[in-house]
């Protein structure tokens, strides 16, 4: 097994605090959720115990991290259908132990070929967000099945049909409804009732699913079986593709519904034309480590990377809690200002990725931070191509809305390969439109585009366009030391993904928190907005008053993100970590918790 040469000092502390967790043997009940586990043979961390168990079973049978990630993702499509599934897309980051290289797959959804910058406008004005959210117009071409194929073709060792079997069985036999699933269903109840197929599937007997009951999805089981027989191409051409196109172009709305559900313009040609993109990851150096993530169309890698570069010159370990959070908030504010002006789909926009990640640009922006006074938002962007100390360029524009749902999984195997994979259908419940007879919800990912320029007269690189990928905040991240993985992480949460990953990284690497504690720590999220969101743990803390004395303003958010991570410990074990309470807690598992096999 690979070993990193210089263990971070806090890793031994983490190892001492670990409890163990492993998947139940095949055919037995899924074990309860455990947020942290350490052992040998590989690790999986996700939000769901059934999904983590599916990945661990693949690792145990000799599959690698890529195989396990696909099996885990497919299972999440069953148990987390409001967050992910084959009707959505995502970003896949992979560390290959043999070559010591990081690879990425952009599996983001794409707009129809007919899309224009006015996709979400009528009579020259943006339509209400809620009407774009629940519509065929918000549906992009799904990228998740193509992502699985691309990953398995390049690095996998197991065929897709074997990896889909656990998820197919889970959909057919059912999973146990928990409080989070019921709450998410309840939050979408009004939308779901307006679509007969969605209502029949997710409101069985016309009622909310009962906590502790078994939820089955035989249509999804049949769809997985069809993909297993025919391959993922079956979603892009043939009967499944025809069903998707028909559903988008004529959403199956209850005739009694009063909701204005606009049709979309997706075509069979759009589905046939879809392809994932292989591109170089973003990379920055931080505290002697190499931090890799997703390049645009995601803004995650550039925005987390710029913020880390801004913080690089400050010893965060020596600051008070208030000063640490102040610097974290200000670095987030600045990097989001630059994100809004410069980041979009590089196939359609001129995105200065390299310049955004330069230390020279970060230093020119870092000097805006005053330890005694907060900046105000919206803050104007800088110019990464011509950085000048403390300069801003052009007009400030607010950060546009981005839905807060998604899911993330993190996997490592016994050979040292690592996957960090974030996937989504956008809003909780996506578009709320289930493909009839197929058992999965369609995304509303195109609502991640700006409905109109964020501010009049300010260039916006995230307007819709033909075949364009909407800007994302997904930030699947892998951290290397001397070419070996020490940490991988990611989170759901819309634009709060970026601040969640940034806060978890700095909490762990700079503040010395064990990984599970860095994940559990109460969160703040500043996204170039007039106020910063705080979870209750910070809202009710004395540190809030200290920050307010610096001019920081706040609003409450009951829950920000839901991270998962894996870490390599100094003794060669893998540690998996997940949430202790957010979204009902996450599920961390390892193959051999009690020693080497």
UniProtKB/TrEMBL annotation:
Region of interest (Disordered), residue spans: 372-404, 453-474
State any single GO MF term: leukotriene C4 gamma-glutamyl transferase activity
Q: Which reaction does it catalyse?
A: an N-terminal (5-L-glutamyl)-[peptide] + an alpha-amino acid = 5-L-glutamyl amino acid + an N-terminal L-alpha-aminoacyl-[peptide]; glutathione + H2O = L-cysteinylglycine + L-glutamate; an S-substituted glutathione + H2O = an S-substituted L-cysteinylglycine + L-glutamate
Please give the superkingdom of this protein's source. Bacteria
Protein name per UniProt: Glutathione hydrolase proenzyme
Please list which residues make up the signal peptide: 1-24
Q: Which UniProt keywords apply?
A: Acyltransferase, Glutathione biosynthesis, Hydrolase, Signal, Transferase, Zymogen
Q: Tell me which family the UniProt entry assigns to this protein.
A: Belongs to the gamma-glutamyltransferase family.
Q: Where is the composition biased (Polar residues)?
A: 392-404
How it assembles, according to the record, is: This enzyme consists of two polypeptide chains, which are synthesized in precursor form from a single polypeptide.
Locate the transmembrane regions by residue number.
none
Q: What Gene Ontology terms for biological process does this UniProt record contain?
A: glutathione biosynthetic process; glutathione catabolic process
User: Which residues of this UniProt protein bind L-glutamate?
Assistant: 108, 448, 472-473, 494
Active site per UniProt = 406
Q: Which InterPro entries match?
A: GGT_bact, GGT_lsub, GGT_peptidase, GGT_ssub_C, Ntn_hydrolases_N
Species, as recorded: Streptomyces subrutilus
Pathway, according to UniProt?
Sulfur metabolism; glutathione metabolism
- EC nos: 2.3.2.2, 3.4.19.13
Pfam families for the chain:
G_glu_transpept
Modification after translation is described as: Cleaved by autocatalysis into a large and a small subunit.
